[in-house]
Amino acid sequence: MYGLSRINWAGWGVRERVLAVAGVLVFVIALLAAGRGLASGSMGEILRVRFGGDAERTRVVIDLDRTARGQVIQSGDDGQVVLSLAGVSPPDRRSGTGQGLVRDFRVAGAGAASRIELDLATSAEIERRFLLPPGDGIAHYRYVIDLKATGRAPTRRPERRAEAPRRAERPLIVIDAGHGGRDPGAQGADTRESAVTLAAARALKAELERGGRYRVRMTRDSDAYVALDRRVAIARQAGADLFISLHADAGADPAVRGASVYTLSEQGAGRAVREFTRGENWQRSLNLPGRDASVDRILLDMTQRATQNRSAQLARTLLGELEGADHPLLRRSHRDAGLAVLLAPDVPAVLLEMGFITNPEDERLLNDSRARRRLMRAVAEGIDRYFREPAGELQMAAAAGAGAN
Known about the structure:
The protein is of the alpha/beta class. It has 9 helices and 16 strands.
């Protein structure tokens, strides 16, 4: 399990606890400020990175949804160009192959900025760089970097890509088949939602277990009723690393179709904190010190915020894989709500609406075993990508470090 909830606070001495709380207070101010900035939409986004040109001159275009200020960190003398873009977050696709003078690229988050790293195929320098506003039929901003070959042999930087520490234990994924038993869910022309979700959950379990990289647990493996709070408790008690709840959407208009992914809303996060602090021993359930309620509340808020960020990361990777697999998506496919199964403050969670059971074509796909396997394969690949991306690796390292305390 990732996050602060694994730290054995009760085992520390008074001095260590005081120093830890002081450090936490400094960190939480920065973290919550950053979280408020993200929630208010103050961060822009890198839409994609693209290339043009040849081995003499190469143009790098970074598509942005708003204006940004760039700063050159490395100019190419050591075989790499590094640029920082303030006020924008990285795209879903964080690395790839370049073109011309650029061998490959990576994009990573760096606080309130994004760091773009361009590995050069041969020696080059920045000829010019500039920002283009929307215009000429293009609705977004473009940050342009023009590179020119110098003919000099580059001074290669030493290799410094050490592998991130890995968990000793495989991540645990909890799959929740929505509805079941006396709660059949939505009704299609020929299908109940509870039957569709169970079939999909079994297919996803098979996909995840195929490679041997995960442990998998299901909240139900039959047509049984499981209360919503029990589904959350199963994930928390098992120490789940991810929780994914599978559903089929429904609507009054049979023409509406497409998948969407829900993560916890800000209002839902507030509800989760209220529910988890209602009892007398709530600190114990999160492995918090339990000596100062105000400090424990700050630690809970930190854990909740980190969980929301990880859930959003998972949602983005899932939608990217579904789009790449040509699975139909709703126009606004990433949504938020205060759904009960998303309320765990310490387990990253998403709810996937696989399609509309009230749409004939979506219902057909949800009942077709081959189409269902393709869909669940895309979901499994999204989970793989979540753990491969830099943030996922940092989470693994944090979990390993927390478990050692």
